[in-house]
Amino acid sequence: MYHKEKSIQMKSSASALYNNLSVLRIAPRSLTYFTVVHANMVNMVSASWDGLNYSHRQLQSKEANVATSSSLIMQAAWCVLPSRDILVLTSQKGIQMYESDGSIMVYWHALDTPETQTAQAVFARGIAAVREKYICVGISSGSMLVFDVPIKGSNITLSEVLEEHKESITDLASECSGSQECIADMVSADDSGNLCVWKSGEDFQLLNKIPGFQMSCSSVKLWKGTVVAGYGTGQIRLYEAVTGIVHAEVNAHARWIYSLDIAPFSGLLLSAAEDSLVRVWHLTMTPETNSVEIVHMYNECVTDTQICGAKFCDGDGYAFAVTGYDLSEIIRYTQV
Amino acid sequence: MSMRTLPLVFINLGGEMLYILDQRLRAQNTADDNTQKVMNDIIATMFSKAFMEELLKPQDLYSNRALRTVLTRLAHASIMRLNPASMDRLYELMVMAFKYQLLLCPRPRDLLIISYNHIDTIREFVRDTPSVLNQVDETHRKIIEVYTPLSDGEFQLLRQTLLIFLQDMHVRVSLFLKDKVQNPNGRFALSTTGPVPHGTEVPGLIRMFSSNGKEWKRWEFPTGGSYTSSIRVGSFERFGDRVIRIGTNMYSVTQPEETHTSKNFSQKANSEPNPLAKEELNLLARLLGGMKVQNRNTETGFRVNLFATDQEEEEAGASGGNGDQSFQVINIQATQAVQVNTELARIAGEFTGEPEQTESPEGPSNKGEDLLAMMDELIEL
Q: What does the alpha-carbon distance between residue B292 and residue B274 come to, in Å, rounded to a whole number?
């Protein structure tokens, strides 16, 4: 179904972090941007579609101090809003936001660090753009910050703090089908596997809470009102977001799942785990019976690699890219 | 990231160091009480109450440089005197073993089992010395108390923190290359067969549910691997069958035949030590030969010669050159210490209970300075 393309070389290797790959497709310029986190730095590569031009940029964690390890970046992801794309970096110190090419930092939010060192780690993790104007970011305490983003400029403000989760946030996802009819706008996941389903607005509204089973949910997606969640046990579960009804359960991987992605136009699902495997699935919705079916399509084994990021490069799922711990390349696959 | 990495880092890295040293001493038929002294000295320092208490404080992982400095001090609690290049090589060997253990760890929580495997062997080393054995037991109790309540997500965070720390290290280790657990390019071989971790189902099944929760369809998909059900869980208590063999002594010659899970670590159950491990350790031994032990109570010091004869030592020294380029194995250079470095002697003296003035340590970053200062003032229990 897919074959391997020429890999993109990075300046440094990928760190073992959940969802450690973000892809931004810029059709007007025939370019795709990739970002991958390496310790306290982010590797940004822009690749032209003809495969001839690559350019690299590296972004530092703010307040990075080379001698210490206390400013590690947990995640980097693009937030696509109607009028602009923002690159968000979440670290142990706080949240940095850049214009999409990484050239200008437009916003910095420092995390509250306790006076005396506690055993609880402090960091931000989990990034999602929600509806037209919000960027949500999760925190290790379980809180989520909602930022209001203007059409242009740096007047980004903290609009709300959502306190629902009690464990560290692992991932956030917004409804990606493009449909305006979906009631749920965002889902958040935490280290105990609890999922919260939200409706955005001046005040975000909690629509539903889906309990976990004490197993971390490391990656989550929301598509056509269906939550797709990947767990540390290697299982994938599909839920109806608003009701919490389980549609399907897949024993997908033999190790911890690190990344999920959905191609919204085709319903293809990508899952990747520490077991070296990337799997492609197909989701079909049957509105009449209110059911969702998941069918397995394809496997790819990235030999001797613990995969940490996997994303489709386009909305149809024609191509996808993969990163692995200690690998300095972004491996790409396209449909045959 | 995780604030709880340090105790496990020292137990595992320190454990690997002790495995290497133990194998070396036994291979040389060193007198039992000499061997015991060496092991006791290092283990007593590593598991001292003050040292462990310092490590257990919630804090970020040290930088590479700070960690190596502290481990060097630890090594010098015994008779070992390593020049910086040799300490580098020893450090790489310890670190690559730990990196492998981290990668192969079935579940993040099993990092505790790996640590307990190290502690179990360390306990064996000092089983005849009640005072040190006590320290090890106390530490083990403390570790169990602190780490048992952590969630799986917190363990994964801890593991991720350590993996970031060990990123980009691809030193080739001949023992690993020979056993095919490491590829010639320095990367570890990750298997897609074998039992799944406890709590994970064997991949391959899709189940569909109706809105009332009843399963209405199930089918299988091809997994591209060959997995079997998980085996039983190991013991997280102070004693018991750990089940997982990762973290046990891969330099031991009397390792019993392993189960499928850890086949890569099995040593053949014969009397011949693994020849490549021996070569590696001979290189290490070169620098240890002829070292004097700092003894308190002015006992007669004993010379630890890690070779049977001086000639062997010379030969090993001759072969300890750069070797096969494509292998780039651990290359430990040794220089006979004509004069014992006075500062090191003083520090060693401190570890054996003689009070001395301390100088401030040079080199390491801020993190770890407190620990180093404390180590300088340690009074051996």
A: 28
- Whether A117 is in a domain gets the answer no
Using a CB-CB distance cutoff of 8 angstroms, which residues of chain B are in contact with residue A168?
153, 157
Position of tokens 């937030």?
Answer: A79
Q: Chain B: give the shortest CA distance to residue A132, in Å.
A: 32
- d(CA A3, CA A336) in angstroms, rounded, equals 6
Q: Is B149 exposed, middle or buried (0-12, 13-18, 19+ CB in 10 A)?
A: exposed
At B154-166, the pLDDT tens digits run 999 999 999 999 9
Q: Tell me: the pLDDT tens digits for A244-265? A: 999 999 999 999 999 999 999 9
DSSP reduced 3-state for B237: coil
CB atoms closer than 10 angstroms to residue B258: 15
pLDDT in tens, A286-322: 877 778 899 999 999 999 999 999 999 999 999 999 9
**What is the count of structural domains for chain B?**
1
The span from the CA of A6 to the CA of B24, in Å, is 47
pTM tops 0.90, yes or no: no
In a domain, B328, yes or no: no
Q: Specify whether the CB–CB gap between A95 and A106 falls below 8 A.
A: no
DSSP notation for A150-172: -SSSS--EEEEEEE--SS-EEEE
- Is B73 among the domain residues? yes
Distance of CA B360 to the CA centre of its chain: 28
Average pLDDT, integer, range A109-132: 86
> Hey, which residues 40-59 in chain A have their CB within 8 Å of chain B?
none
Q: Residue B52: what pLDDT? A: 87
Tell me if B229 is assigned to some domain.
no
Kindly report the CATH number assigned to the domain that includes residue A293: 2.130.10.10
B103 interfaces chain A, CB cutoff of 8 Å: yes
